[in-house]
Amino acid sequence: MPVITIAGNDGISVEKKREMVKKVSETVADAYDLPIEAITVLVQAYPKESIGVAGELLSDR
């Protein structure tokens, strides 16, 4: 059973998360030739003050 983890900042709406999880699940199920019920997607959302890029926090950009 494939488990997909998507990590990013917390700037995405619940509706967009639903859409993303559905599309990713369908794509991976197709690639593995599995039913969509066999796919697990974990969405990890981090606040901007917990993400560093190029030596600085996203919240400071």
UniProtKB/TrEMBL annotation:
<feature type="active site" description="Proton acceptor; via imino nitrogen">
    <location>
        <position position="2"/>
    </location>
</feature>
<keyword id="KW-0413">Isomerase</keyword>
<dbReference type="InterPro" id="IPR004370">
    <property type="entry name" value="4-OT-like_dom"/>
</dbReference>
<protein>
    <submittedName>
        <fullName>4-oxalocrotonate tautomerase family enzyme DmpI1</fullName>
    </submittedName>
</protein>
<dbReference type="Pfam" id="PF01361">
    <property type="entry name" value="Tautomerase"/>
</dbReference>
<dbReference type="InterPro" id="IPR014347">
    <property type="entry name" value="Tautomerase/MIF_sf"/>
</dbReference>
<feature type="domain" description="4-oxalocrotonate tautomerase-like">
    <location>
        <begin position="2"/>
        <end position="61"/>
    </location>
</feature>
<dbReference type="GO" id="GO:0016853">
    <property type="term" value="F:isomerase activity"/>
</dbReference>
<dbReference type="InterPro" id="IPR018191">
    <property type="entry name" value="4-OT"/>
</dbReference>
